[in-house]
Structure prediction request, 80 residues.
Amino acid sequence: MITISNPERYIAGIYARLSNERIETINGETTIIKEDERESGSIANQKTFLSNFCKDNRIKIHKIYKDDGVSGATFDRQRI
Prediction:
């Protein structure tokens, strides 16, 4: 259990991310394969877990951000 002193002083931004790419190497060639474009179950689970943590610790959530399907190897991300 984590104890946070004065939790009402904090405002959180929740950030959940998961790449929907699968990287495969066949015969020395690296290929990036895009998976399904829908929000993944993992993103939904991350948002639920982190939101519950904030609720349980009386931390206000400012906004929930997500990068679902964006490779961690790129800086070309949607601006929020």
The beta strands are 11-18, 21-26, 29-34, 60-68. The mean pLDDT is 76. The first strand starts at residue 11 and ends at 18. The two ends are 32 Å apart (CA to CA).
